[in-house]
Amino acid sequence: MKQMLRHLPAIHELQQDQRFAKLEEKWSKAKATEWVQEAVAELRKELLEETWVQSNDIIDFVDEIFMRVSERLSEHSMKRLQRVINGTGTVLHTNLGRARLGERATLQVAQTAQSYSNLEYNLIEGKRGSRHDLIEGIVKEITGAEAAMVVNNNAAAVYLILKALAKEKEVIVSRGELVEIGGSFRVSSIMEESGAHLIEVGTTNKTHQSDYEQAINENTAMIMKVHTSNFKIIGFTKEIPASELKHVTEQHKVILYEDLGSGAIYDLRQDGIGNEPTVSEALMHADIVSFSGDKLLGGPQVGMIAGKKDLIDKLKKHQLARVLRVDKMTLAALEATLSEYRDLDKAKTTIPTLKAILLTKEEVRARIALFKPKIPASFLSEIIDGTSQVGGGTMPEVELDTCLLKLNHQSIKSHEIQEQLRKGSPAVVGRIQEDALLFDFRTIDEAEFADLEARLQEFAN
């Protein structure tokens, strides 16, 4: 195979090929040459290592090289961030972008992106304004907070609060709440970076009110409550809710801060789902709270901060507020999403996250039944019982009863179909169990039926 190296064409010869001319016309000579050089180098390496496998439809090295250039061109043109049909049943799938935006939010983002906006301009007074003002009013309206602001995610919110309100001061946290979230991101590490000093109290499973009281001294800035959205400790446990810590912090004149994590505006407990406190409920006790925008809120990725006006004002004036601020499109999506909560009954149908979580098993079954006639005859299909997850580190103990579409192809293995579905456009992601493809239609809308059908038709015999 090494002897074939002498037959590799020179770059200048490849540049005379009509296929190179087409590449040069569409892109540039420099870019076309770069792709050809990469393909030749790759082929030379395979020949030296004797790993090259000749394709049946390749006549010579020139064809091989331009075939590889064509593959590179396809990869170069492909969007890196792509639409995915989520058939996993995990509503807030972190790897698939968490919350989907509703129609109102999507439209407002498009309108804001396509035109100028009053991002930092007060239209009433005709002078410079603040982007903080754009969402503060509606957050106050739907949560009862005195003031509010937004940063780029909840980890940033935690960092800003600790940096601005507790730098070089002590912050008391229960050991049972020192959580680690995705990507080895720990609350204790954020606190260390902020300059606040962590004071751990209690044990992993039990923390008493006296533990907090005994830890308070003249250098204490706040007590921090961390809602453990991504795990649950069961059995012999005890924790002190913010409602019981309020009089402790008031007596000692320290801040009571609650990091809610998921940040529910709509109370899912009334539908028998989970035990997540609402933001309004937390604000009845805590001086300041923070939560995510792309979890139970059902909006874009942001970190929401709400609470007492004097504390929020300090955060707005801190230099980090500019570093952590969000852009106009994020604010547009957030404002539109928050506006839906002015009518909670309507929000259940207009916010995709809430709608998906609240779907009954029978409603999911009805979706599958509607799609079933579109399945190619090469698949054997049936509807089976299953469970969905809320996801996104939210309510890990909650399983939502659902129905699954089970598919088995007559001749192609399920893992091969799964791989091809994942790599095509739009990408389709589901589950595999006992060599069968499973799709949970809790997270597949009717608007996606045509695309899903087209992808399955690729396997029609």
Automatic annotation (TrEMBL):
<dbReference type="GO" id="GO:0001514">
    <property type="term" value="P:selenocysteine incorporation"/>
</dbReference>
<dbReference type="Pfam" id="PF03841">
    <property type="entry name" value="SelA"/>
</dbReference>
<comment type="similarity">
    <text>Belongs to the SelA family.</text>
</comment>
<dbReference type="GO" id="GO:0004125">
    <property type="term" value="F:L-seryl-tRNA(Sec) selenium transferase activity"/>
</dbReference>
<dbReference type="GO" id="GO:0001717">
    <property type="term" value="P:conversion of seryl-tRNAsec to selenocys-tRNAsec"/>
</dbReference>
<dbReference type="GO" id="GO:0005737">
    <property type="term" value="C:cytoplasm"/>
</dbReference>
<keyword id="KW-0711">Selenium</keyword>
<feature type="modified residue" description="N6-(pyridoxal phosphate)lysine">
    <location>
        <position position="295"/>
    </location>
</feature>
<keyword id="KW-0663">Pyridoxal phosphate</keyword>
<dbReference type="InterPro" id="IPR004534">
    <property type="entry name" value="SelA_trans"/>
</dbReference>
<dbReference type="InterPro" id="IPR015424">
    <property type="entry name" value="PyrdxlP-dep_Trfase"/>
</dbReference>
<dbReference type="InterPro" id="IPR018319">
    <property type="entry name" value="SelA-like"/>
</dbReference>
<keyword id="KW-0963">Cytoplasm</keyword>
<dbReference type="InterPro" id="IPR015421">
    <property type="entry name" value="PyrdxlP-dep_Trfase_major"/>
</dbReference>
<protein>
    <recommendedName>
        <fullName>L-seryl-tRNA(Sec) selenium transferase</fullName>
        <ecNumber>2.9.1.1</ecNumber>
    </recommendedName>
</protein>
<comment type="pathway">
    <text>Aminoacyl-tRNA biosynthesis; selenocysteinyl-tRNA(Sec) biosynthesis; selenocysteinyl-tRNA(Sec) from L-seryl-tRNA(Sec) (bacterial route): step 1/1.</text>
</comment>
<comment type="function">
    <text>Converts seryl-tRNA(Sec) to selenocysteinyl-tRNA(Sec) required for selenoprotein biosynthesis.</text>
</comment>
<keyword id="KW-0808">Transferase</keyword>
<keyword id="KW-0648">Protein biosynthesis</keyword>
